[in-house]
Amino acid sequence: MKILLINPRFPPSLWDFSHIRHINGTRFPFPPLGLAVLAALTPTGHEITIVDENATDIDFSVDADMVGIAAYEIQKERAFEIARIFRQRGTAVALGGPLVNDVTREECEQHADALFIGEAEQTWPLYIADLQNNSPQAVYRQSGFPPLNITPIPRFDLLNLPSYATAIIETSRGCPFSCDFCEVPVRMGNIPRHKNPLQVMEEIKALAALGADSIFILDDNFTGNRKHAIAVLSALEHYQAETGHRLTFSCQLTMANAFDDELLALLHRCGFSWVFIGLETSDQKALASVNKRQNLAHDVREAVRNIQAHNLVIWGGMIVGFDGDDEAAIERQRQFIMEAGIPVVMVGLLQALPGTALHERMQNENRLEDASLGGVRSGQQAMLQTNIRPTPLSPEALATHYLRLMERLYRFPDYARRLLVSIQRARHGRAGSGNGPDISSLPSLLRVLRFYCFTLDMRRIYYFLRVLLACLRHRGLAAETVFMHLAVYIHLRKFHEELSLHHRP
Fold first, then answer.
1. Which residues lie below 8 Å from residue 471, measured CB to CB, with a gap of 6+?
2. CA distance 72 to 278
3. Beta-carbon count within 10 A of 43 CB
4. What is the C-alpha separation between 392 and 389, in angstroms, rounded?
5. How far is the first Cα of the chain from the last one, in angstroms, to the nearest whole number?
6. 47 in the Ramachandran plot: left (φ > 0), alpha (ψ -120 to 50) or beta?
7. How many CA atoms, within 13 angstroms, populate the side-chain half-sphere of residue 107?
8. If 0-12 CB within 10 Å is exposed, 13-18 middle and 19+ buried, where does residue 265 land?
9. Strand 167-169 to strand 193-194: parallel, antiparallel, or no bridges (unpaired)?
10. Per residue, what are the HEC states of 168-180?
11. Alpha-carbon gap, residue 53 to 109, rounded angstroms
12. What mean pLDDT comes out for the span 42-56?
């Protein structure tokens, strides 16, 4: 069969980095790893094509026997539109991904010939066999959580990697924590499942052979199983030493790792430059109210400082809209972010996602405003919406204070001050042999310099020079890392400017 796998176009979002694509010459941040996994799960003898609509257009006239679409909630409208066009042409359409679940099943059934609920390692090959026998089922449901040792090496060769800012891999699924607002334990399980470290290294080597120089480990909690993470990192450290530290890495950690100096030092030696951590808030009462217990074990400011000391820039996930979040609480959030020196902060309004403990509690308290909103992730049109009736602020007041918070956080002097803190706190020597930007990145560097130097905004020039001087003086963070964060700022600033422009009363 001729199989076409499609990743629908995302609407504008905080994570698309659309405003700096002209700087790094890419079309989208990450490739659709899930589709590469599906391609690897497909039995031999089939012709497979992957189309990521975020990087290229879809040819709707293509000759395909079936189309598989994997989508998130914010891709729903486009996913349904793509499915409709292909079904009108008589092509079988299968729909899966986080979009498809028991809450959305009835709606999704109207737009596809087959639905996939849950992970697809075991159900996708079954579907392909059923399709060949002209007996496909309407719904394929994964019972339980399949072991990851049955997951083959993804078909990275079917992805146009130069179109993306970084390659991605997955080493584990699931999280041992049970934060009330988080759907990961519900969707992926409380017991982390992981791939064999040898396979992880084979995937890294395969990406390097295809020209990748940056890899993001997308596990929701890379260190959910510490023993496994250490095994992966130990193998990676050996590989990096053998290959001259050609690759840089990033991942998602938790505050449970904040004082694990062995792990943090290993991350640094392996070439990790930044880590995303769900800090949520510095308010311990708010953290306790949503069972974020791993963030209560240590003083959050000292924890952040220790991570930064290992030359890891923290990207912080923050939330406003907890019970009790008034104007003063939101201001305390801002002050904490500034003091902690967290340059990149992804702030969202608290959402009650279906299946979570928070959703059940809000339902019991009759505080769910729009049950269909749960699961919406960072689409610009939904950034100022929450499906929870907040207290004490009204939804309108909460949105207004959110906009003010982001406006202040992404003034360049404030962003630069936070980046300076990260630079100054890095106390270990640089990993590997690289001392500066690769010559291949020179055009990107020149575009960044143009933004910061060719301007009438003297404060922008002043703080840019301060950052540059600190980078040269402290020499803890690689110049590539610092310039990357200067480029990221351009997107974050423009994104939030657009958000304010579109939503101001």
1. 423, 477, 479, 482
2. 20
3. 10
4. 9
5. 53
6. beta
7. 12
8. middle
9. unpaired
10. EECCEECCCCCCC
11. 23
12. 97
Helix (H), strand (E) at residue 249: strand 248-253
Contacts of 124 (CB under 8 A, 6+ apart): 38, 41, 42, 116, 140
Taking 60 as the threshold, does the pLDDT of residue 12 lie above it?
yes
388 neighbors 356 (Cβ within 8 angstroms): no
Q: How far apart are CA 87 and CA 113, in angstroms?
A: 9
| Structure-block tokens of residue 172 | 């584990």
Query: Is the pTM value of this prediction over 0.90?
Result: yes
CA-based R_g, the chain, Å: 23
Note the pLDDT of residue 436. Answer: 38
Distance CA 278, CA 347 (A): 10
CB-based burial of residue 394 (10 Å sphere; 0-12 exposed, 13-18 middle, 19+ buried)?
exposed
Domain ranges in the chain are 2-141, 163-421
Question: For residue 31, what is the DSSP state?
Answer: -
Length of the chain: 505
- Element of type H or E holding 186: helix 184-188
HSE of 271, CA atoms in CB hemisphere, 13 A: 24
pLDDT band at residue 325 using 50, 70 and 90 as cut-offs: very high
Which of these, 429, 425, 362, lies nearest to 389 by C-alpha position?
362
Q: What is the mean pLDDT of residues 449-461?
A: 95
Please, what's the b/e burial string for 24-41 (b: 16 or more CB within 10 A of its CB; e: otherwise)?
Answer: bebbbbbbbbbbbbbbbb
Average pLDDT, the chain: 93
Domain 2-141 of CATH type 3.30.960: no
pLDDT of residue 382: 74
CATH class in words for 163-421:
alpha beta
* Cα–Cα nearest to 12, from 59, 75, 57: 75
pLDDT digits (tens, 9 = 90+) for 224-253: 999 999 999 999 999 999 999 999 999 999
pLDDT on residue 239:
98
Question: Coil, strand or helix: which one is 158?
Answer: helix
Write out pLDDT tens, residues 153-165. Answer: 999 999 999 999 9
Q: Which residues contact 27 (CB under 8 A, 6 or more apart)?
A: 21, 54, 55, 56, 163, 164
Least confident residue range of 127-141, 406-420, 428-442? 428-442
Question: Between helices 33-41 and 123-132, what is the axis angle to 10°?
Answer: 60
